[in-house]
Amino acid sequence: MKNSHTIREIRVIPLYGVPYSDWPARFGQREQTRTLVEVITHSGIASLGCVYTSADLVEGSLKLLRPLFQDASAIDPAATCEKLHQNTFWQGRGGAITHTISGIDMALWDILGKVTGQPIWRLLGGKYRDRIKPYASMLMTEPKELSAKLQSAHGRGFRAFKIGWGPFGRRDDRTDESIVKAAREAVGDQCDLMVDAGGSDAFWPHGYKWALEKSHMLRDYNVNWFEEPLRPDDIDGYVELTRHSRVKIASGECLTRRQSFIPWIERRAVDYLQPDVTKVGGLSEQHRIGQYADDHSILVVPHGWNTGVGLAADLHLAAAAANAGWVEYLTPEPYMDDVFAVPLQLEEGYLRIPDGPGYGYEWNVEGIKRLSDGVVIGKP
Ligand SMILES: [Mg+2]
Predict the structure, then answer these.
(1) 196 CA to middle of ligand 1, Å?
(2) Which of 212, 243, 255 is nearest to 94 (CA)?
(3) Rounded to the nearest whole angstrom, what is the distance from the C-alpha of residue 233 to the centroid of ligand 1?
(4) Model confidence at 227, in pLDDT bands (50, 70, 90)?
(5) Residue 135 maps to which CATH number?
(6) Ligand 1 centre and the CA of 2: distance in Å?
(7) Model pTM above 0.90
(8) DSSP 78-142
(9) How far is the CA of 51 from the centre of ligand 1 (A)?
(10) Is residue 31 part of a domain?
């Protein structure tokens, strides 16, 4: 067993802190929604995955899953993780269990990459691009403050921007337009600008007609896509809106499991689908979702950026998908800056797809130790 590429242990690494000062913490002072898992093999390889939920839920999920993953192959990510999915249909599937499997699956793809000496994109079938444009993702604030933030990100090399949440759709139409107008003026006509209403917010008050009217305003400012203008489960609303909106419609960050995406894809409920690799079930699941979307002429915009580990997975998924466009990203951002050993560089507004084995990145051991209150990674 000592030298075999089977799973010996999976550790939980909670990350603490709130990335945005203007994001309302809902779960106490130390809101904790980002958790790393470290999969360690009997052969001594340690790899990270990322889960979008609290460490307590990941801990509980791992406890349940342990008999299934203990000593399972660490170099057969899709098969090993499908076994975890298939055996937990009655045990919170689609929720914390699926989120946790996402992190395990990501780490297993990295292990497979390390063992074979290949980048994950090649193991997924090969790459369609060498680089992809990230969009700087930021919360909406009052127009003047937001303009300064956008200009600062532009100065750091970003050429695509997404503004979202904040007062948009929560105050009045004039506020909405003044924010979008200021944002377009701040980034200029040559850059991509996206608007995220944040319809997965609690008790989102708007429906189809509000969203359709808002899309007319957004068209005036040449907005690339309108994200989550409706509640996340309103598939009929999305189908209508995507058919009639004057801008592209994007959604999908709350969906988990490939099966949940089937009606959204088959009914062409969105123009752009945004699966989150840290929630849907990992790279194995998202790659299948992406391929099914491609067969229905739907573009995929990966949404797993909540840590550098998620972004790394997104870059490989985006490389290996014919129908990928953009990835979500932002710096400065502790979950990026403290996670990558070498800070990522933008080249003409693009991020390069890494070519090294697995993710192709080294992690910042000290940075992760800082974010996790003392956990040291890579010590099998
Ligand atoms: Mg969003």
Answers:
(1) 6
(2) 255
(3) 14
(4) very high
(5) 3.20.20.120
(6) 44
(7) yes
(8) HHHHHHHHHTTTTS-TTTHHHHHHHHHHHHHHHHHHHHHT-BHHHHTT--S-SEE-EEEEEE---
(9) 17
(10) yes
